[in-house]
Amino acid sequence: MDQKTPIETFWDPSAILALLLLGPNTNAAETAWSTSDRAWMWKWTRLEVEAALSHRRAPPEAWTAWRRLQAAVQIVDLVPDEFSALCQFNRTAKLGASTASQLFVFDRTSAAVTSLKLVTFDRETLLGAEMLSLPLM
To answer: pTM value?
Structure first.
């Protein structure tokens, strides 16, 4: 009997917000979430998601869904000793700081979790991931 390779996903803020707030990418985000065996996110994604929820005056249901989602994902962080490596990474990528950091953490995490795929609906993140040949969902 064949062993199914688990589907591991790494969520950026645009993808998480698509799960929490109804929008053009909600169906695609829900499909990615439902097919994922284990979800990951960068620790700082919390700041970006909460800022967006506050800015958009999200209803209480979105905040409740956000708390549930946080409990269901694996949180990874940027190792402080890798800051110089992040700067070098972005000299090549030439991305905005938040996008570069997100992709750097994803790149490092995907080196350890080889089946990891990025879920994003953000144009800069998508273009950066494609440029860097990072695996997308």
So the answer is: 0.92
Query: Which of 20, 15, 63 is closest to 39 using CA atoms?
Result: 15
| Helix (H/G/I), strand (E/B), else coil: 28 | helix
Tell which residue, 126, 63, 65, 62, has the closest CA to residue 93: 126
Q: 55-88 burial by CB neighbour count: b if 16+ within 10 A, else e?
A: eeebeeebeebbeebeeebeebebeeeeeeebee
* Nearest residue to 89 via CA among 106, 109, 104, 108: 104
Q: Work out whether strand 116-119 and strand 38-42 pair parallel, antiparallel, or are unpaired.
A: unpaired
Q: What number of other Cβ atoms are within 10 A of residue 107's Cβ? A: 21
Q: Each residue of 43-74: pLDDT tens digit?
A: 999 999 999 999 999 999 999 999 999 999 99
pLDDT beyond 80 at 3:
no
